[in-house]
Amino acid sequence: MNRNKICVDHVTVRYKNGRNRAWPWSRKNGSNGAGKAHALDGASTAILQDITLDIDAGEFVCILGHSGCGKSTLLKVIAGFIKPDEGAVLIDGQKVNGPQNDHVFVFQEGALFPWLTIIENVDLALRSIGNASERREKAQYYLELVALEGAGGHYPHMLSGGMRQRAEIARALAAQPDILMMDEPFSGLDYLTRLHMREEMLNLHAMLPDTTILFVTHDIDESLQMSNRLVILSESPARIKCCRQIDVPHPRTAVCPTLSEMRTQIYHHLGVHSAL
Amino acid sequence: MLASFWQSFEQLPGLEQIGRAFWELASNGTLLRSTIASLFRVTVGFYLAALLAIPVGLALGRRPVVYHWVNPIIQFLRPISPLAWVPFAMLWFGIGEKSAIFIIFFASFFPILVPTVKAASGIHPMYFQVAANLQFGVWESLRLVILPATMPNILLALRVALGISWLVVVAAEMIAVKSGLGYLIIDARNALRMDYVVVAMVTIGIIGLLLDLAMTRLEHLESVRWKLEQK
Fold first, then answer.
1. I need a labelling partner for B204 at 20 to 30 A (CA). Which of A3, A56, B52, B196 fits?
2. Across the interface, do B226 and A155 touch by the CB < 8 Å criterion?
3. Domain count across chain A
């Protein structure tokens, strides 16, 4: 089980006060996103503080935490989009130095290219295949996997939010990743669609048991229903507050006593005491 | 005052007279020759501007540090009317085709450059993360991300720039050359033929309309329709 083992080793990430000025002589410091508001006078504040985490191949890990606490940052560090200021991420013993196509990231909002049709989007992940008809077949196969076989010729804006998210998962799977990183992929969807998507995620994971899935969410029920392990992050700077192994077999029901007890504990960890 | 206004209004040639003038200019080939001369200058100047402004704009848009230092120069040159370059154009290129083309080039360069820079720098970073994740090379990033993402804005800029070059060609021809619709107007004025002036003005208007229609058609191409339909 050592293959594709993810090892997050004492990772710390700080805010940097970026300069983004319109004119060379203007003194105004621009900010590149909400996070920068934390930094005062060029001082740097930590987003992630000394995170250490081991994940085995085939695990389905949910990363839970308050909104804005740094969950996505952690995922982006593992994906290679953000370079940690201290520590390192090792995958399969190799240090992560940048994004790679066997560790695929699924974004929160629509990251399908709006100028390409659904099947062309999926095809992007299959560029290494030279044979055109084989490529076409593969793209169609991955669309079928997410029940979008009829939507290949459509542009992303013609589809519903749930279908778009499924298409994105199809594109990610087409790259045949060892690790699938999902950054709140269902947060923009309506409740019912979200429930369907959970089921489909579980089916996909059952079909691809070697694929490690890292899933960032703030939906506790979602994480309880799907994952093998929960990692709960504390707020600014994010540290690992606690981890929970979930051994309840699928399909899980919300009324399962183990899960409901765990649910109460997690709510407490996240500072919610009454609204249960 | 009203009387003098009325008097000036009366100096407008009548419809019948204009019709006759149109027939004269069309039958002796002056109108067609002038139109072709003007369109040729606009086409060459506009294409040169587009060929230079689009790559430079995309490069500047993706290199914020360079743009940061080049931007003041652009913003300094941009408000100078292209017609202010006429003396230099004539000094460098003499009276003739090259001067007019140079002025058209100047007139359409910045209206293409600035929106292209904005479009290229405004591409959502997420698309580049996807590209990096799927291991796109430089050429693939250009072909699959940068060009399609900026194309709708570039087409809009081209449409505006073509309108501007059509505006400017007439003015340039009044000064720098001895052919084209602008020259036709100046020549007719010198001969006190206001009917010819009106014919040239109407022709300019109609061609401007047709150019704009053609550019609007481009905006409905398959490759850029997503932007229109997204909203």
1. B52
2. yes
3. 1
